[in-house]
Design goal:
- This protein is α+β, with helices and mostly antiparallel strands and 307 residues long.
- Helices cover 51% and strands 22% of the residues.
- The chain contains 6 helices and 12 strands.
- The chain has helices at residues 5-13, 27-70, 75-108, 113-146, 215-231, 269-286; strands spanning 18-20, 23-25, 155-158, 161-168, 172-176, 182-186, 193-195, 200-209, 244-252, 255-265, 289-292, 295-298.
- The strands form 4 sheets. Strands 6-5-4-3-7 form a 5-stranded antiparallel β-sheet, with no helix packed on it. The chain has a 3-stranded antiparallel β-sheet with strand order 8-10-9, covered by helices on one side. Strands 1-2 form a two-stranded antiparallel ribbon.
- A hairpin with a 2-residue loop joins strand 9 and strand 10 (255-265).
- Helix 5 (215-231) crosses helix 6 (269-286).
- The radius of gyration is 37 Å and the shape is elongated.
- The model is unreliable at 3-14 and 302-307 (pLDDT under 50).
Length: 307
């Protein structure tokens, strides 16, 4: 067969076969094998990374549980908050891992991800202005849950609105006030929170005594109130610490103001205050004390009967 210039050019254009471990492999086959190897490595790395996701979830769970222990969070509230944080953290981590793996696989099979990323970037800029507040809502909701700022059932004041937290998601918080009106507040609008039922509450009962009431009698009355509360059957497990008596804390018009402070469970403070006022009324009656123009004074004794 005669050798022509055209046959020489064709022969020079074809790459020479390679010899790997005694096996002759064409460059095209080697390229395919390398691509398959890259896909396998990417999948293996993805599987290993997915195995690390539970470690991240357990780390978040430990931090969230530690915060719950600090704030005396109930078991139901703790479980709800930890499950939400764990679910969100795991979903985000898995999404990032799979997106990275898909990008590698697309690059191996010859689909360039650069145009896709560029198109996504342009679309992201267009959508980002409208979705910016939604992203802020999700980030704010995540940290509200993580830091245990409030939970469902808490009485809070947010953006000047006081009510009970009826529903809470990563995007919005639903408050219902005493009148029954529901307020839907985006989490990104929550900057300051006043939580009145976070873990525990302090119930303070103030009483003003006239200047003629001896201090020893005042102390005996208020200590009797504290003793009645501790002995109350319905207060077992509700009063978290021994009630304390403080005073005098103020003097107005000669009347001294004293205070009984009770540390109670957050959701039972109304019952504790009601029981404390009832105990105060009973102690005042037992000590022959009563109210006169809002001040506690000695009750006038009945005149002695004339013979």
């Amino acid at each position: 067969m005669p050798v022509t210039l055209h046959s020489l050019l064709l022969a020079s254009a074809q790459p020479a076969p390679l010899h790997v471990l005694g096996v002759t492999v064409s460059p095209a086959a080697l390229t395919v094998l390398l691509g398959v190897a890259r896909v396998i490595v990417a999948l293996v790395v993805a599987m290993l990374a997915l195995r690390l996701v539970p470690l991240i979830e357990r780390f978040v769970m430990r931090r969230a549980t530690r915060r719950a222990a600090v704030f005396d969070e109930s078991q139901a509230e703790e479980q709800q908050r930890v499950e939400t944080l764990t679910r969100v953290t795991g979903s985000v981590a898995r999404a990032v891992i799979w997106l990275g793996t898909i990008a590698v696989v697309l690059g191996v099979i010859g689909i360039s991800v650069a145009p896709l990323l560029a198109g996504a970037g342009i679309a992201g800029v267009a959508v980002g202005f409208g979705a910016q507040s939604i992203v802020k809502d999700f980030f704010s909701g995540f940290f509200i849950l993580f830091e245990n700022q409030f939970s469902v059932g808490d009485t809070v004041t947010i953006a000047g609105i006081t009510g009970t937290v009826e529903q809470m998601t990563l995007r919005i918080t639903v408050l219902r006030d005493a009148g029954g009106t529901a307020y839907f507040i985006p989490n990104s609008n929550i900057s300051n929170v006043a939580n009145r039922t976070h873990g525990f509450n302090r119930v303070a009962i103030d009483a003003s005594f006239g200047p003629l009431v001896p201090e020893e009698k005042i102390l005996a009355v208020l200590q009797g109130v504290a003793a009645r509360l501790e002995a109350h059957d319905g207060m077992a497990g509700v009063i978290l610490e021994d009630p304390t008596v403080e005073g005098p804390i103020d003097v107005v018009g000669g009347a001294e103001t004293w205070r009984v402070v009770v540390k109670s469970a957050a959701d039972r403070s109304v019952e504790v205050k009601r029981a404390a006022l009832s105990a105060l009324r009973r102690e005042l009656a037992a000590a022959s004390l009563g109210y006169e123009a809002g001040v506690i004074v000695e009750r006038a004794k009945a005149p002695a009967a004339t013979p």
